[in-house]
Amino acid sequence: MNTLRQQINVSHSFVTCFLDDAIEIPAGTHEYKFSCQIPSNAATSFEGEHGKVRYTVRAVLDRPWKFDQACTIAFTVLQPLDLNHESEKIGQPMKLERSKSFWFWPCISGPMHFSIELPVSGYVSGQKIPITVNLNNASNIPIHAIRSKLVRKVCFISQTPTRKARNEAKTVAKMVTTVTRDKSDQYTQDLVIPATAPTGKCSIISVEYELKVKVKLGGFRSDQEMTIPITIGTVPFGMSPKVEPVSNSSPGFGWSGGMPMPSGVATPLLSMPELPNTPRSPLPYPPAAPPIGFLPPTYQEAMNQSAVNVNDGEPNAIGFQAYIPRYPVYNFGSPLRM
């Protein structure tokens, strides 16, 4: 797949010499400050097998009559996805039902009925997806287990010379519950969402999520599986940060209120989240409600992802610069159920 590269180029010269003039930088630590405005529509950082969205800063030590030395570091850019401002559909309860009968020649079994319920279909990393599975088995086929997994679906799109797409699916979280009473019972699962890229898309990469719940059957029968689309955001229900204009005198990005953003992460400037006076309606499932003044999320490296050396391929590079994108992870209590 061909690579499409879009760059934001900003160049600064900190120490300059002309012709045969020599400038000697004494031994020690020297700091040269600079800033670069990140476009408001910049795509979220992502590292995948077939493509990536990566932001880097590269410093070059220009040495006359010697090989230049360079060092590149990468940082994470996040495009905010506020669940409170998305489609109301993701704030509605979700329920899927299925009935299945089995042939036992020359007869047919009683129905096996099962359903899956979610309070909403929008979540953030660090949150638990509360899954409720109802079983009503009137057949003689045993049910062994319930397996749930959150799957990230990534589509890599090549624009030139022709438009092509390549899809990749990866399980980011999973759990198994053993069924002890397979005739009629209700089972609950709390699937924790790890640090992972939020739902989103740009011109070359799209990221989506699905919750797959599989009922494992015995008697050499095919397992039954149902799928629910899930939206992973950066701001949870009930917390809606306000986007503030960035001052020319404050080139940094982060949460205000004395909680700076961690090194290597950039987003539009956000104020401390506050609970709205009247949550959007209907909102049947606020997460375990954080108090007013709730701290912003921590930013953790993407789960199950290996570090890459952003200096790889750089001649005369200075050091090994490991990089894994960081995504916001919230710390909630136990999830509320329907």
UniProtKB/TrEMBL annotation:
Coiled coil: none
InterPro entries (UniProt xref): Arrestin-like_C, Arrestin-like_N, Arrestin_C-like, Arrestin_domain-protein, Ig_E-set
Keyword Disulfide bond attached: no
SUPFAM superfamilies with a match to the protein in the record: E set domains
Domain Arrestin C-terminal-like: 108-237
GO terms under biological process: protein transport
A Gene Ontology term for the protein's cellular component: cytoplasm
Keyword flag Secreted: no
Keywords: Sensory transduction
Entry superkingdom: Eukaryota
Family: Belongs to the arrestin family.
PANTHER family in UniProt: ARRESTIN C-TERMINAL-LIKE DOMAIN-CONTAINING PROTEIN-RELATED, ARRESTIN DOMAIN CONTAINING PROTEIN
Name by which UniProt lists this protein: Arrestin C-terminal-like domain-containing protein
Species this protein is from: Aedes aegypti (Yellowfever mosquito)
Gene behind the chain: 110681035
